Amino acid sequence: MKKLLSVFLIFAIIFMCGCTSSYMDKTPGDVIPPVQDSTVSVSSLVMPLYFRFYNEPMLIRYSLTVEITPHEQPEFYAINALLSKPLGQRTDFTYLFKGKTKLVSVKSNGNYLYVTLSDDFYNDTLGSNDEETFLNRRLAIYSIVNTVCEMGNHTYVQIYIEQNGAQLRPDSYSVGLQKSQTDSTPLGPLSRDTSLLLTPSTVTKIALDYFSKTQWEKLYLYLGEGSTKLPILEEISQKFNYLDLKMSEYKVEDNYTVSEDGKTAYVQVSFKIRNENAGYEVSNVPLQLVLRGRTWLISYDSLLKHLGVLE
Fold first, then answer.
1. Do the beta carbons of residue 270 and residue 250 sit within 8 Å?
2. Cβ contacts of residue 128 below 8 Å, gap of 6+?
3. 205 closest CA partner among 192, 217, 219
4. What predicted TM-score, i.e. pTM, was given to this entire model?
């Protein structure tokens, strides 16, 4: 019995000695800081960030390695990366913020993330006219929403703008999410919007719209090399102007298929073509797209084939 008591006392002393190295002498109610080295642990995380595709009304996904610390949730660093001034010039995407908008706070509650931006947001997203301003703000809002939602921790994002010390929900019309000011309401929680993303289907819809408007310079942004090299813009413009093809109607299916290697996609399309001599209709043909970098582009060969002008 004495032996057992002695063993118990020894373990008790060891336990007390071990505990004294983990706690400081603090009064009840004080926050107890860790005793270990207070150097912040920095790690990195690859994040899906969304930027504007050229000056188009679309968002392009860009994976960027961002340094994070345990003091803030990853979404804090992702949003700050979107708000920051660009570190270098890129040709395929445009930063939606001019570097003045500040991230005031980020708070999480289940599937919801509450994001408060400084009121510099309004000046930071001004365009050359009202239409461009509303587009800038809509894309800016959804660059945050789509980035956060694709990180996988939240389904909805509520945006607030801090004004005179108060966190307010912006007016939907003022940020380009309502067409009429009369029917506008305070902005509510938003979820990921796929209509702004460069999927094979949305790329095809935009490209055929530019073709129907004979905007060859815009169309060229969505064309890629197929089995042959893509000609320069001037050659393509001359070719289409010479052929004088007018696309009066077109239809693009929302669904598409992607090859096993993930480098080719097919979208079902139909359209009507006419020129000064005749007209014809193309129904339910598979238009090929190729993945170039981070963007789906229409195969130039495939487009010519279905237009009936492949040489």
1. yes
2. none
3. 219
4. 0.80
